[in-house]
Amino acid sequence: MTEDSLTVPDPLVYPEWAGGKVDWSLAAASLRASINDTTARRSTRLADMQNQVQGLIQVARREKLRVLLGVLNRIEQEIERELEQASADLSRLSRLVRYLERLARHLEITPEPTPEVIALYTGSTELPEVLADSLRRNGFGAHPIDLENPDPGLLEHTGILIYLAGDEPDQDHKFEKLTDLKNRMSACAQTLMISRRDDFAMRASAVRAGIDHVITHPIDSARLNTLLSGARVTECDDEQITVLLVDDMATAGAYWRKQFARASVRLLFETRPEAAFETALNEFPDVILLDLYMPEMDGMDLARIFREHPQLSDVPILFMSTEERDQYRLEAKLKGGDDFLNKSIPAEDLIRMVRYRAQRYRQARAERITDSLTGLMNHRAITQMVDNELDRSIRQEQPLSVVMIDIDHFKQVNDTYGHPTGDRVIRGLSTLLNTRLRKYDGVGRYGGEEFMVVLPATTPANAVKLIDRLRTQFAAERFETDNGGEISCRFSAGVAGYPAHVTPQEIINAADEALYAAKQAGRNQVTTRDSG
Question: For residue 334, which phi and psi values (nearest 5 degrees)?
Answer without folding.
Answer: -65, -25
